[in-house]
Amino acid sequence: MRRYDGNLGQLITVGIKPDAALPLLSQILDGVEAAHLLGAVHRDLKPENVLYSGPAHVPAIADFGVASFTDDLVATLVETKPTQRLANFQYAAPEQRMPRQTITVAADIYALGLMLNELFTGTVPHGTEYRSIAAVSSQMAFLDSIVAKMIRQSPAERPPSIADVKVLIQRHQAEAVSLQRLSQIKQTVIPAGEIDEPLAHEPPQLIGAEWNAGVLTLTLDRPVNADWLNALRQMGGYTSVMGVPPDSFNFCGNQATARDREHEAQQVINYFKPWLSTAPTRFAIS
User: Fold this and answer.
1) Which backbone phi and psi does 126 adopt, to 5 degrees?
2) How do residues 158-169 score in pLDDT, each as one tens digit?
3) Which residue among 80, 81, 176, 267 is least packed, with the fewest CB closer than 10 Å?
4) Angle at which helices 105-121 and 143-150 cross, to 10°
5) DSSP bridge pairs for 258
6) Which domain covers residue 163, as residue numbers?
7) Could you give the CA distance from residue 264 to residue 136 in angstroms, rounded to a whole number?
8) Averaged confidence pLDDT in the chain
9) What total number of domains does the chain contain?
10) What residues are paired with 61 via a beta bridge?
């Protein structure tokens, strides 16, 4: 049996650095998503149920399958002494506090939203005027709007799945990074005619790849624009897998897709990476 060194609640008490919080959350999301895909709803997510082992703090979700709250349990928890932690009740979604409600993945997403805020701030966001992530890390301020969506009162107004939460994080993070880089560049006085497009100075980076049914999907750290795409497709002097040149890729947001054969996917990726740094040398603002 695997032994664990502690739980997320203990890490939060000690304090988690902002740059370590999001990667840790990503692993937690993966674990909960795997359970959801198998048809299991945790219904009792809280930091104490996220165990970790090793110096890398690799997380594991514990105590799946807890029943939804009963009237008696809620009453007991409400009557708990002020000095005692309200355990499960503190992370319960609004629908779990009412009798005869159907509990779905939306309840887990609610609890994860609370935990997301707590990872950065050390506090659980109940009510209004709670401590925001922006107050702790300006670079992670984009997460505040995602937390707000995840902890909506109505289950129907929350992201419908963990996959949707991941998309929100990736999209908002890409937008935030682009805005931050643009802001930095705009604060610099440059000679007339010099390119001040962030993509020209900081090429996008490849952060993920997936091959499925003949289609290779590559994920960049942020979206690219039409000028950058033109530079990529017109750069010349590139090396590629036969039949998969730069102009064979279709871009949407921060993802690029192209058809290729599975045994060639890694080679296509290997060629794609240097294109990202080569394209800006041909960059031109129209």
Assistant:
1) -105, 140
2) 999 999 999 999
3) 81
4) 140
5) 216
6) 6-171
7) 44
8) 80
9) 2
10) 50
Domain termination residue (choose one: 121, 156, 171): 171
Ordered DSSP codes for 57-83: TEEEE--TTPPPPPHHHHHHHHTS-TT
Mean pLDDT of 204-228: 89
**Alpha helices in the chain, H assignment, sequence order:** 8-14, 18-37, 71-78, 105-121, 143-150, 162-186, 198-201, 226-233, 265-278
Predicted TM-score (pTM) of the model is: 0.57
Give the contacts of 147 (CB within 8 A, at least 6 positions apart): 113, 116, 117, 125, 133
- Give every CB contact of residue 41 below 8 A, 6+ residues apart in sequence: 35, 103, 104, 105, 107, 108
120: nearest Cα among 26, 32, 29, 22: 22
In a domain, 184, yes or no: no
User: CA torsion sign, 207 to 16 to 173 to 171?
Assistant: positive
Question: Tokens 């629908």 identify what position?
Answer: 95
Report pLDDT digits (tens) over 26-40: 999 999 998 888 888
For 54-109, write each residue's pLDDT tens digit: 666 678 888 765 533 334 444 334 333 433 333 457 898 998 888 878 889 999 99
